[in-house]
């Protein structure tokens, strides 16, 4: 049972994280000035859901904090508190504490000290809405978890023993509420019947909490059905056997009522009917399938109450059967949330299989005679395969917003730590990339933003002296171009101090003292291993493990980093990443008996050199004359230190590839094929090798290495030859 | 692993079970193999399969002992020349050369050895710590154990041989990254 609970709890935490993302997005929108009802309601719902789940799972600290936060949001939603900038700012801070609470509830972090934040929230509540709600908040928060703990252990025992023969009498249950007599004058606007599923308690959904929530909204428990209660001997002490009739005042909206049922277990029966209705005591087996066996034994179903039909006769609002632990039934009708949760590893498996299918498909095509290739089945099969592949890729595509979502908070904390004021601009959050990419850009992104705030953006005073606005600006953008995604972090800070960077690099022995480097090369030095210019080691950055880690992470993804910096104006870091890490459109080439794959996206054209078209220049470098333009040529065999091919240049093929450093020709023996390949990363069993984007398995079972053209050409051009990772030992 | 290998292993296992005497303390199965003139052993539990030698796809810019990568049922697995890794002359390939594919902390790697010898059970208590003979070797040898060798000829006078148990963790081809860091 505890395993089940763990599973459900895992789902709860997943929903928490989604809720947090929604809340943060909403709060940010509010902070930007859009305080429309929809936005506020969205945030409220998210926090409310977290509170509900927290209560159900006994995360008291999380529950009581989210409760107070929710109260404030409720006041704002109801228009009793104006969502001023001050309020929004504090709500964002409260959100941060809430995130910490969620982390703590998951055991990832210690329980945060929320006393100060709670005091702030309470103060805001008092300021805005008078003392009633603040009092409410103060008293409810501590009492709810305590009551819940009690209910878990003993809540049902006294009930069973005391009123076994009173199943038609609601009175003994009034002690669940506030003890007051039913307020007849306050005509009930809603009549609710709530029969939690038998497993409700085991599933972590505590009916008592729902009842308390309804009572808080002004509801009254007017009846309890005890018909399905078995004899003591047969009773499961953790089972839920009762059904309640509750009346709610008309002032409560239907959606509020439904929200109260957000966290009841699946298969519970929730009927919400409009109109004044006296409690309905009967339960028919059809209505309460779980109770069926017991209902047979006890003659409850025959006692038909005249009020029940009255309630059901209302044509305007037929009873709604909600499937709890899912969005409310009503919302379902509006936007059908046809989502299922799928384990990512299953998607990975599917993608792998589709990849193999693609490969087999092209092998099949190769093996067939040309006459057979013309037949309609083969192109059709190829089309279907490609469509499956596209669809699987689409399944894994996620908006990059997920990676951006933690940036606002990080920036708030960075600003607080560095005492700087930085505004964040984000664009292109909807750009979709493969899930694997999203997972892996978080860390590089964090480093780049830390760098920008810590090193790039100046203090407010310094900025004013330079005639810049006091508030710094950080732009985070994502953009898709072809099969690559461009991710930019741009600040309007002081730019890279090239003199200092160069001095530091010389001091650290990264470059020779007499080296002459271009501005671009100097900028790139900040990515060199062990380089850090921070004068003092701060907790934010400056430990010298920043940018080189970023670079190696990005390169491991088959991407690269570009740095552009204008002194006094700012620095832009651009991460250029592949859209997917799984499948590559490649050109298979042969060299010294081995096959290699070049990403087709890099290939511009291929040429078989004419005699005299290749010309040696300087020492050991060559160019090829391409219609009057000289393009440098690298011999792949030399780059890989393979034995020189004993074939004439004219028998070889030069593949012109596009790189950051302009077009470059790569000389290989022959071109074999064009093929989609499934990328197998080398670091799965080995480690990434610079110049290789991974490996792939060809149709005959042999392995072909995938070339990382950028890294290959960069390492060939580099004056001080990169220390290849594999050579380190 | 092809069919004959499997058959070989089965007979080996059967033989070793017969040869094993009941010992009280914990036993482990080790796979012994020859490299040069020495007998080495690795934990049977780490072994995934024994493959015939097949030229792997060479990798650029890697230490010489990494012979390349090979396809192990859809996984790209590095192949390490164990002799070179230990700082010896490279093994000369012959008909009995084979690759021991092992699992080292979830990562797979193949090691080229001269010949697989046997599968034996040894008691944990019989394993002695490796003496500090030579710096390079002790670092990868976890312990020494004496086993009775099955007689190659028909004579039944068993003689004891010493097996050096390898510490696979230390031989992992990904390990030098940590060293370099």
UniProtKB/TrEMBL annotation, chain A:
Ranges of residues in domain CheW-like: 583-718
Residue numbers spanned by region Disordered: 278-334
Gene3D superfamilies given in the database record: Histidine kinase CheA-like, homodimeric domain (1.10.287.560), Histidine kinase-like ATPase, C-terminal domain (3.30.565.10), HPT domain (1.20.120.160), SH3 Domains (2.30.30.40)
Record PTM Phosphohistidine, positions in chain: 48
Catalysed conversion reaction: ATP + protein L-histidine = ADP + protein N-phospho-L-histidine
Alphabetical UniProt keywords: ATP-binding, Chemotaxis, Kinase, Nucleotide-binding, Phosphoprotein, Transferase, Two-component regulatory system
Cited InterPro entries: Bact_Chemotaxis_CheA (IPR051315), CheA-like_dim (IPR004105), CheA-like_homodim_sf (IPR037006), CheW-like_dom_sf (IPR036061), CheW-lke_dom (IPR002545), HATPase_C_sf (IPR036890), HATPase_dom (IPR003594), His_kinase_dom (IPR005467)
Sequence ranges of Low complexity compositional bias: 285-299, 319-334
Pfam families found in the cross-reference section: CheW, H-kinase_dim, HATPase_c, Hpt
Protein source organism: Alteriqipengyuania abyssalis
EC number: 2.7.13.3
UniProt-recorded name of the protein: Chemotaxis protein CheA
Record domain Histidine kinase: where: 377-581
EC top class, as a word: transferase
Segments forming domain HPt: 1-105
Job of this protein: Involved in the transmission of sensory signals from the chemoreceptors to the flagellar motors. CheA is autophosphorylated; it can transfer its phosphate group to either CheB or CheY.
């Amino acid at each position: 049972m505890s395993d089940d609970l763990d599973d459900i709890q895992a789902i709860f935490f997943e929903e928490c994280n989604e809720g947090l993302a929604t809340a943060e997005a909403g709060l940010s929108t509010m902070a930007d000035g859009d305080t429309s009802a929809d936005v506020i309601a969205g945030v409220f719902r998210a926090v409310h859901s977290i509170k509900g789940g927290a209560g159900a799972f006994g995360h008291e600290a999380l529950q009581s904090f989210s409760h107070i936060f929710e109260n404030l949001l409720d006041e704002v939603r109801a228009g009793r508190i104006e969502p001023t900038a001050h309020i929004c700012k504090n709500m964002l801070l409260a959100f941060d504490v809430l995130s910490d609470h969620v982390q703590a509830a998951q055991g990832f972090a210690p329980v945060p000290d929320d006393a100060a934040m709670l005091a702030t929230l309470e103060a805001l509540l008092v300021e805005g809405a008078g003392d009633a709600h603040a009092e409410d908040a103060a008293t409810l928060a501590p009492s709810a978890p305590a009551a819940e703990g009690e209910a878990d252990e003993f809540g049902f025992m006294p009930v069973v023993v005391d009123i076994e023969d009173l199943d038609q009498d609601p009175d003994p249950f009034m002690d669940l509420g506030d003890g007051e007599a039913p307020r007849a004058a306050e005509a009930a606007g809603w009549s609710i019947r709530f029969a939690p599923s038998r497993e409700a308690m085991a599933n972590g959904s505590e009916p008592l909490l729902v009842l308390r929530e309804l009572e808080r909204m002004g509801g009254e428990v007017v009846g309890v059905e005890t018909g399905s209660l078995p004899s003591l001997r047969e009773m499961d002490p953790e089972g839920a056997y009762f059904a309640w009739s509750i009346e709610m005042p008309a002032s409560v909206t239907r959606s509020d009522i439904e929200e109260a049922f957000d966290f009841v277990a699946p298969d519970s029966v929730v009927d919400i009917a409009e109109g004044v209705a006296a409690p309905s005591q009967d339960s028919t087996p059809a209505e309460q399938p779980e109770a069926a066996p017991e209902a047979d034994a006890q003659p409850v179903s025959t006692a038909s109450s005249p009020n029940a039909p009255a309630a059901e006769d209302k044509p305007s609002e037929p009873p709604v059967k909600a499937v709890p632990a899912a969005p409310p039934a009503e919302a379902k009708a509006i936007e059908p949330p046809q989502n299922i949760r799928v384990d990512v590893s299953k998607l990975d498996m599917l993608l792998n299989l589709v990849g193999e299918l693609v490969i087999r498909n092209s092998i099949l095509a190769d093996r067939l005679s040309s006459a057979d290739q013309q037949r309609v089945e083969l192109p059709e099969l190829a089309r279907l395969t490609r469509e499956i592949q596209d669809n699987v890729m689409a399944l894994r595509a996620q908006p990059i917003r997920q990676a951006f979502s933690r940036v606002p908070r990080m920036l708030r904390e960075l600003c607080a730590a560095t005492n700087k004021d930085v505004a964040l601009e984000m664009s292109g959050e909807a750009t979709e990339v493969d899930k694997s990419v999203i997972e892996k850009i978080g860390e590089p992104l964090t480093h780049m933003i830390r760098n920008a705030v810590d090193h790039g953006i100046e203090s407010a005073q310094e900025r004013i002296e330079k005639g810049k606005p006091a508030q710094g600006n950080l732009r985070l953008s994502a953009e898709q171009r072809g099969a690559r995604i461009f991710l930019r972090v741009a600040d309007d800070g002081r730019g890279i101090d090239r003199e200092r960077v160069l001095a530091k690099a010389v001091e650290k022995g990264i470059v020779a003292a007499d080296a002459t480097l271009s501005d671009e090369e100097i900028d790139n030095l900040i990515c060199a291993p062990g380089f850090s210019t921070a004068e003092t080691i701060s907790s934010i950055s400056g430990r010298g493990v920043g940018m080189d880690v970023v670079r190696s992470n990005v390169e491991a993804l088959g991407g690269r980093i570009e740095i552009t910096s204008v002194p006094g104006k700012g620095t832009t870091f651009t991460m250029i990443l592949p859209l997917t890490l799984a499948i590559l459109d490649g050109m298979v080439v042969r060299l010294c008996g081995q096959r290699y794959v070049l990403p087709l996206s890099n290939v511009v054209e291929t040429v078989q050199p004419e005699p005299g078209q290749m010309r040696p220049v300087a020492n050991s470098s060559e160019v090829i004359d391409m219609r009057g333009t000289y393009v440098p040529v690298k011999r792949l065999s030399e780059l890989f230190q393979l034995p020189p091919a004993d074939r004439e240049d004219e028998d070889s093929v030069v593949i012109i590839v596009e790189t950051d450093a302009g077009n470059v020709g790569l000389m290989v023996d022959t071109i074999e094929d064009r093929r989609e390949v499934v990328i197998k990363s080398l670091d799965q069993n080995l480690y990434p090798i610079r110049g290789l984007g991974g490996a792939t398995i060809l149709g005959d079972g042999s392995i072909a290495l995938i070339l990382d053209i950028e890294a290959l050409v960069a390492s060939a051009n580099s004056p001080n030859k990169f220390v290849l990772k594999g050579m380190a030992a | 692993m092809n069919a004959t290998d499997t058959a070989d292993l089965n007979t080996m296992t059967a033989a070793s079970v017969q040869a094993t005497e009941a010992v009280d303390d914990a036993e482990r199965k080790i796979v012994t193999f020859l490299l040069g003139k020495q007998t080495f052993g690795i934990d049977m539990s780490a072994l995934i399969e024994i493959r015939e030698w097949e030229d792997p796809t060479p990798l650029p810019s890697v230490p010489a002992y990494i012979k390349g990568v090979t396809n192990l049922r859809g996984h790209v697995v590095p192949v390490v020349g164990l002799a070179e890794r230990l700082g010896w002359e490279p093994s000369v390939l012959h008909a009995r050369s084979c690759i021991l594919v092992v699992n080292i902390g979830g990562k797979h790697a193949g090691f080229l050895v001269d010949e697989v010898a046997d599968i034996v059970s040894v008691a944990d208590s019989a394993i002695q710590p490796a003496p500090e003979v030579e710096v390079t070797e002790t670092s990868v040898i976890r312990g020494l154990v004496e086993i009775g060798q099955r007689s190659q000829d028909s004579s039944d006078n068993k003689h004891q041989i010493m097996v050096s148990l390898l510490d696979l963790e230390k031989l992992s081809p990904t390990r030098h990254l940590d060293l370099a860091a």
